[in-house]
Every structure is written in C-alpha cells, then in structure tokens.
Amino acid sequence: MVEHPDESLFAHDAEALDTDNVATGRAHAVFFEHNGMKLVYKHYHRGGMIAPLMGDRYLGSRVENTRAFREWRLLDLMQSLKLPVPKPVAARVIQQGVFYRADLVTCEIENSTALADVLAEKMLNKAEWYRIGDCIARFHAKKIYHADLNARNILLNNASSEASLVDFDRGVVRYLGEDWQQANLARLQRSLKKFSAANPAFHYNDYCWNSLLKGYYGTQ
Question: What tens digit of pLDDT does each residue of 15-53 get?
Fold first, then answer.
C-alpha cells in the first residue's frame, strides 16, 4: 500500500503515452511500477464534441466533487462490497481558477486482458460468457451503475476467465429504478456488435450474448 503518495505517482502523462505501457483502447491509462507495486495511472480527459474546446479541463472548485475523487470513493466502496474492481491508491486534482485537471492511480488487475482483445483472438465458451453475465449482475445487485460498460472495460483473468470491471468514471450508486440496468446491458451489447462489425474475425454472435444473459439472470 502507498502510505504517503507523492508527485512521482502522477509523472506519466508526458513520458509514457507513446510506449508499450499504455493500455490499448483505454485513453491515458498507463501501467507502471512503484515500490514493487503494479499500478495504473489514468489522466481524465474529455471526450465527445466538447473535447477540442476543453481538453482535460473540468469545471468545479470543490475537490470532493471532482471526477477523480468521486471515482476513488466509488472504487473504495466496491472494494468493501467485495466486487472485482481495481483497488484505489491515490487521486490528484490540480485547480486552476474555476477549472481543474485530475488523475487517478489504482492497483493493476494483474494477469488479465480486456474482453475485446480476448475476442479478437479466440471464442469464449458458454461457461465463460455465463461468468461475465454473473459478474455484471453482482454489480447491479449492489446498485452500481457503470457509465461506460463496454468490451474494453471488462477484464478477464488469463487463467480462470473470471471477470472484473474497470474505469468507473461517472459511475454512481443508483438506488431507484431498474431501467438503468437494462441500459447498461444494451450499451455492452452495442459495443460487442461494433467490434464485431469492424472485425470479421471477432469471436462474437447471438449465442454468446444469450449465454451472457443466462449468467446475468442466473438461468440455464
């Protein structure tokens, strides 16, 4: 555990973005080691139409409400609930007037590969898809909403194929309603179909999705 985080934990955005330590498809996520620990550094950066204008700046002055500290607290909560997520290590916010820039450091989920990368190489069997669905159901049972549930934010253990979820930026605990749960699943399904359309060799079909849903609902 990092008892006294310092600036060295966050000195990766300028030096490592073009190296092999950057996660494919996970923008601004850099793998590094610190005192023998395998960690992941993430710099928050806007997407969408506002990105060219705002870049990595966010509006807000209350540190506790920044994206980095909200994600840190959510990860800490999910750790306490024994959900398979990265352990949060440190967060940093740099305030500049009414704007801020933010970073987050978490422990690496070792010996794992993004679902999208796994499916680009091989087909998963029914039991493996079932476990992915069951994993998502565990989060939903605890009212955890993942704002960007896609095939790159699901990691599979290289040995057991047990699933973990990463990148909980804008994630929240949602106590009311259930529509968001179906929306979460629909987002993941769109992601898988998008990868499949872009790569004819991508190992995904309707049978895969139905097997995931059986895991999600606990049916055979």
Answer: 445 445 545 544 468 999 988 899 999 999 887 777 677
The pair of structure tokens assigned to 22 is 């950057």
191: closest CA among 157, 134, 148? 148
Task: Report, as residue numbers or ranges, the catalytic residues.
Answer: 148
- CATH assignment at residue 67: 3.30.200
Q: Strand 88-96 relative to strand 58-59: parallel, antiparallel, unpaired?
A: unpaired
Question: For the purposes of burial, counting CB atoms within 10 Å of the CB of 62, is it exposed (0-12), middle (13-18) or buried (19 or more)?
Answer: exposed
Q: Which of 107, 125, 142 is the last residue of a domain?
A: 107
Q: What's this model's pTM, rounded to 2 decimal places?
A: 0.90
User: Do the Cβ atoms of 20 and 32 come closer than 8 Å?
Assistant: no
**Nearest-5° angle of CA 4, CA 157, CA 215?**
120
Per-residue pLDDT band for 14 (boundaries 50, 70, 90) equals very low
Among 107, 135, 151, where does a domain finish? 107
